[in-house]
Amino acid sequence: MQASQTVLERRYAALGLLLIAPTVLVFCAVIVYPLVSAIYLSLFSIFTPTLQGEWVGLDNYRTLLAKDEFWSSLVNNLIWTVGTLTLQILLGVGMALVLHQNIWFRSLARSLILFPYFISTVVAVLVWKWLFNDLYGILNHLMLAVGMIDMPVDYLGTMPNAMISVILVGAWKFFPFVVIAVLARLQTIPDALYEAARIDGAGPIARFFDVTLPQLRDVLVVIIMLRAIWDFKEFDMIYLLTGGGPITSTQTLPLLVYKEAFALNQMGMAAAYAVVMMLIMLVFMIVYIRRTRQEADT
Amino acid sequence: MAAVNFDKVVKSFGAFTAVHGLDLAIDEGEFVSLLGPSGCGKTTTLRMLAGLEFPTSGEISIGDRVVNDLAPGERDIAMVFQSYALYPHMTVAQNIAYPLKKRGVPKSERGAMVQKTAELLQLTELLSRKPRQLSGGQQQRVALGRALVRDPKVFLLDEPLSNLDAKLRGYMRVELVELHRRLGRTMVYVTHDQLEAMTMSDRIAVMEGGRLQQFAPPTEVYRAPANRFVAGFIGTPAMNLIDGEIRQSGGTWQFHAPGLTLDCPPLLDSARPGPACLGIRPEGVVFGSGPIEGVVQVVEQTGHENIVVARIGADMRLTGRVGAERVWQAGETVRCGIDIDRAHIFAAGAAGERLNRPGLRPVEAPAVIKAAR
Lengths: 298, 373
Description:
Chain A is mostly helical. Chain A has one domain (about 70-295): MetI-like (MetI-like fold), CATH 1.10.3720. Chain A has helices at about 1-40, 60-65, 70-100, 105-110, 115-120, 120-130, 140-145, 160-185, 190-200, 205-230, 235-240, 255-265, 265-295; strands spanning about 45, 50-55. Chain A has a two-stranded antiparallel sheet with strand order 1-2. In chain A, strand 1 (about 45) and strand 2 form a beta hairpin. The model of chain A has no long low-confidence stretch (mean pLDDT about 90). By secondary structure, chain B is α+β, with helices and mostly antiparallel strands. Chain B has 2 domains: about 5-225, 3-Layer(aba) Sandwich (Rossmann fold), CATH 3.40.50.300; about 230-345, CATH 2.40.50.140. Chain B is about 25% helix and about 35% strand. Chain B contains 8 helices and 19 strands. In chain B, the strands form 4 sheets. A 6-stranded mixed sheet of chain B has the order 6-7-8-3-9-10, with helices on both faces. Chain B starts with a strand and ends in a 26-residue tail after the last strand. Mean pLDDT of chain B is about 90; it is low at about 360-373.
């Protein structure tokens, strides 16, 4: 009996290996190899067009840490991430609460709200650039019309306008993700909890803080972690909107990596920046993994 | 502590009317069960009393105050939900203290009140735990604690025992009755479980199709059901209901069904000859002797008694409750009779009202069984 069980167990194990093998292979090819390769490249000084290089050890890292541009980009990166993420969460939770109510056209509104998230970044940025345009943009036009400003505002060419604009567009583009996740959680909060709170004498605000928010806490932690990682490495939106400008005022680390690799042709240096970025995001990832593990345990 | 009064209360959801002109007067300190099958309007009634639903018309009052326009939190009620609805992120102590906190009871007093409630419900050891760390029965007690701590005028309980296993349910029934006796508060209890309603209530309000069918003490509901619905709904196994007609010959009333003629129990003056229904509880059916011949179909042995289902004629079934000492076999021919003093006559139709005079006491002496094939 014992022996046959073991044979069966072995057969299951073999099947398991067979089923998991394709995923592991693909994972190695597209994640592990590039990761190891990036770390390896960061130890060389490489000229991008020829990919010729020489071993420099940790020199790239020494140079990088001594560079003002790295630190200013890191600060920009943090300002962008914290700014846009905060707005995304506030907007997302607020909108999810509205869409959770029995309002007219709720289904339509729920579909429309996803629009910014689904639209291509290039298209979205082009539209926003026109909206922001200081000569023809509707934003300036409207603000002039109602007398809020006397002169057109340069939204993308001066500071702090450029950073604020990038943060706002980022919030607009990505808050629907928060809406979907929060809305999904809101729908699972039992009505009885709200009813119990009403009978216990809790008003609408108390019900939000004592029932809704605690119930959203777990999903919010996951959303914040995921969106922090995704926003931290956001490239295309910022690159297309400001190109990191004016000068380097909105240049974040991903833009710096791109600049090093393809404008300055320093692939090794770019790899070193990328590795440092990865280490910073590792902190977020560890928190996220710990969090999900805790949830799995409870 | 306060009386509760429903005055011509109607509740409609769009075209559907869940409660039709309900009149119900619950006395101060009474334990009343709202009993009925799913969709009978009992939960809607309770929710209207709680302020979670608004009546379409009519008045609801608690004590001498009409509460129609009061929010749930202003009605001075407490409610125990079927799902317990404990706040999952709060500890047991915080859950119990929550209604006090929301009503501005100073923190210094809250602790003592929570402690007192916890002692009453044997929750002292669990005060620092979260709801998910508790068993179903413990969660149930916390939900009760949250209701008790504030000493409200009326307790509302919405099927609070239905998520517990049978043994715990039996235990909690006794606990609740004991609690009601000790507190003397008005309690309104919603259930679809007739055993709970019968064992715990001072009075039962039987509901069906959004209408009150009968509002009476458990014994009366059992022994003198107001209509055919109540007769069929209350009692396990259910009352035998035999369709036929009543005829008057001379001064006596007789009930006729295919293959069955019986003298009726004393009827009300309002009784008129015509289609009717005879109701007899399984304990009113005599097996082993009597003028009716049947064939045993099913025997359910419960240990202390047997439930015997016999087929009479082509399509009539008679269920009887008999002693466990005699073992009946399926297929066996059996003679049976009906104890007419325990029988009821109802008007025709699903909710036909009772036509016989109420006889609340079971008849001690063996009744004369008159039946003919």
